[in-house]
Design goal:
This protein is α+β, with helices and mostly antiparallel strands and 610 residues long. The protein folds into five domains: 91 residues, GIY-YIG endonuclease; 143 residues, no CATH class; 121 residues, Nucleotidyltransferase, domain 5 (2-Layer Sandwich); 165 residues, 2-Layer Sandwich (Nucleotidyltransferase, domain 5), CATH 3.30.420; 53 residues, DNA polymerase, domain 1. Helices cover 46% and strands 19% of the residues. It is built from 20 helices and 21 strands. Strands 14, 15, 16, 17, 18, 19, 20 and 21 form an eight-stranded mixed β-sheet that branches. Strands 4, 8, 9, 10, 11, 12 and 13 form a seven-stranded mixed β-sheet that branches. A three-stranded antiparallel β-sheet has the order 2-1-3. α11 links the parallel β12 and β13. α8 runs antiparallel to α9 and α16 crosses α17. The longest helix is centred in the C-terminal third of the chain and has 36 residues.
């Protein structure tokens, strides 16, 4: 029986109920995750007839098997679909390209909450606002609310650090309410933070009313200094509101989405309107384009809110979506926020104008992205031609091995993606299995550990590289190919060959050298990649060596082993340990008085030259 017939038969046996289906290739890798109100109808449609888009046809041609999970409702299926897409990052699902790199403003759940910009959204008790289009807009928003509400910008932690140091200059300037003085209670400080959160959510009117009530209360209690701070916050809030573009009635809280796809560049644009004012706009570059329908885009929007949590009362779509898709998104968001969320496609009026504005933003973002891509990745295009690659390598990983002596051997992985080095994806592998310096064994271990993560949902490591470059010649390429074969992976791999002066001379496929010496731009591109991998490896290897030497110097002292050396170095640097008193050493957890006396005597004798 052919594969296609086997898949058709299996699809026809599915139940006609809501659920999620998981498409896999011949190696068992998940390449697509979808959901459906009727599993049998949807999955069967992939394996009968023609008329598929290019992306869908390509995906179907790679399917060797599929799994499915029955759900009670379509909402449950949508939720599960989002979870599985995050876990497997399937190649053929539409995703927000590098969505994790978009910045958020984080408000911690501490007694005296801290506010800061972050690119990492964790599942903790903190609140997150955003995402913002870039760090500049995120920091601008953060600076505005910190200034308006006179919140602490220092790194002190309260109440722990109350009274330990004098207030900084920001208190004298009226820029900080100074919780460090102990004159501001945790409840009062949290009220200011809550007002800041309202502004970040777009509810400036509500925040202003809250501040006004607090100001009047402070005046009644004769707390005139606090009342003056609150008055200044209200004035600053008024100025901020004046700067925001009013695009609707002041009671309107809505997000507007539009999508533009052209020349293999897809952009999802989003406008956030809070209190009738446009407070934020984002354009997300999409990967895995050419969707079969708008259903995937609707699922993507649901996933976006699942990550951001900042759900308005109304969502407007500037593209066609069926009534069922809109109803599903509405129900999903309503359950998430525990209130009614309306999803609609406006045909006229302010809503239509906002959709048109979002579409223009999407078009402009696509144009800029395309120009930037063409400018920055001409070297990658040329590299693709030189190496005869079947597909354009969007993610390139370069590897290098570094060791000082027979210890502290590390392998570095640096990543070039979408026009530049992606340092957040860099990784180091501390080699554990080789006996002494063994370049080939070290490369084998590093690649095996790294490539084993493909498809498992691990950040960065879960992605499949399009091209692997290893520092070395034919033998290094041979080792890399053995690892790929053992893991049943089909990834292009080449070696970066150096000359006698340790300069990049050529690339090798394991048998033939491909000279790049006469192509200056290509030479510079490969040389910089190779040097970056080397720099990252050497820096880490040297750091490990210094750490080992530091540990070793402490372990020469009688009674001080690795655990106590680690405890000491965690408490203070070696220079301070050398000069510490016996009492200071005793204060370190795990160090007894006898240990402290031995350490003190050891370094005292060193100072005296004994």
């Amino acid at each position: 029986m052919s594969i296609s017939q086997r898949l058709r038969d299996k699809a026809n046996s599915l139940p006609t109920v809501p659920g999620v289906y998981i498409m896999k290739d011949k190696d068992g890798r998940v390449i697509y995750v979808g959901k459906s109100k009727k599993l049998k109808n949807r999955v069967s449609s992939y394996f009968v007839g023609t008329g598929h888009t290019y992306k869908t046809a390509k995906m179907v041609s790679l399917v060797d098997d599929f799994d499915y999970i029955v759900c009670k409702t379509e909402i449950e299926a949508l939720t599960l679909e989002n979870v599985l897409i995050k876990k497997y990052t399937p190649k053929y699902n539409i995703r927000l390209k590098d969505s994790k790199s978009y910045p958020y403003i984080k408000v911690t759940a501490e007694e005296f909450p801290k506010l800061f910009v972050t690119r990492e959204r964790k599942s903790d008790r903190a609140r997150y606002f955003g995402p913002y289009q870039g760090t500049a807009s995120a920091y601008a928003a953060l600076e505005a609310v910190m200034k308006i509400f006179s919140l602490a910008t220092c790194k002190r932690s309260f109440p722990r650090d109350i009274g330990k140091e004098r207030p900084c200059i920001y208190k004298d300037m009226g820029r900080c309410i100074a919780p460090c003085t102990g004159k501001v209670s945790a409840a009062e400080y949290r009220e200011l933070v809550r007002a800041a959160e309202r502004v970040l959510s777009g509810n400036a009117t509500e925040a202003k009313e809250s501040l006004r009530i607090e100001m009047e209360r402070a005046s009644e209690m004769l707390e005139f200094e606090r009342a003056a701070v609150l008055r200044d916050s209200i004035t600053a809030l008024d100025r901020l509101s004046e700067k925001q573009k009013v695009v609707a009635d002041e009671k309107v809280n809505r997000d507007v989405f539009a999508i533009h796809i052209s020349d293999s560049v897809g952009v999802l644009a989003m406008l956030s309107i809070r209190g009738g004012a446009l407070i934020n706009k984002n354009e997300f570059i999409l990967s895995a384009l050419d969707p079969q329908s708008t259903e995937e885009i609707v699922s993507l929007i649901a996933a976006h809110y699942d990550a951001s949590g900042n759900i308005p009362k109304e969502v407007m779509l500037g593209f066609e979506a069926s009534e069922d898709e809109r109803a599903l998104l509405s129900e999903y968001l309503s359950l998430e926020t525990k209130r009614k969320v309306t999803v609609k496609i406006p045909e006229r009026g302010d809503g239509r104008a906002l959709c048109d504005m979002a579409l223009e933003n999407a078009k402009e973002s696509a144009r800029k992205y395309r120009l930037e891509w063409e400018r920055e990745d001409k070297n990658v295009k040329r590299l693709s031609e030189l190496l005869g690659l079947a597909e354009f390598p969007r993610r390139i990983e370069a590897y290098d091995i570094s060791n000082i002596g027979n210890e502290n051997i590390v392998a570095s992985m640096v990543v070039y993606k979408d026009g530049g080095l992606k340092k957040s994806d860099y990784r180091l592998f501390k080699i554990k299995t080789t006996n002494g310096a063994d370049d080939y064994g070290s490369m084998r271990e590093a690649l095996t550990r790294r490539l084993s993560h493909i498809g498992d949902g691990t950040a960065s490591l879960g992605e499949t590289p399009d091209l692997i470059l290893v520092d070395g010649g034919d033998a290094h390429v041979g080792v890399a190919r053995e690892v790929l074969e053992a893991l049943s992976l089909d990834i292009s791999v080449f070696g970066m060959v150096k000359d006698d002066h340790h300069k990049t001379r050529a690339l090798t496929d394991g048998e033939n050298d491909i000279s790049i010496a006469k192509e200056f731009d290509m030479y510079a591109f490969i040389y910089n990649l190779q040097e970056e991998a080397h720099r990252f490896a050497v820096k880490s290897s040297q750091g490990a060596k210094i750490k080992t030497m530091t540990h070793s110097s402490l372990e020469k002292i009688e009674g001080i082993g690795p655990a106590k050396a680690k405890a000491l170095l965690s408490a203070m640097p070696l220079a301070k340990i050398r000069m510490a008193s016996i009492d200071e050493l005793c204060a370190v957890k795990g160090i007894g008085r006898q240990d402290a006396e031995r350490i003190y005597r050891y370094f005292e004798e060193k100072r005296k030259g004994k």
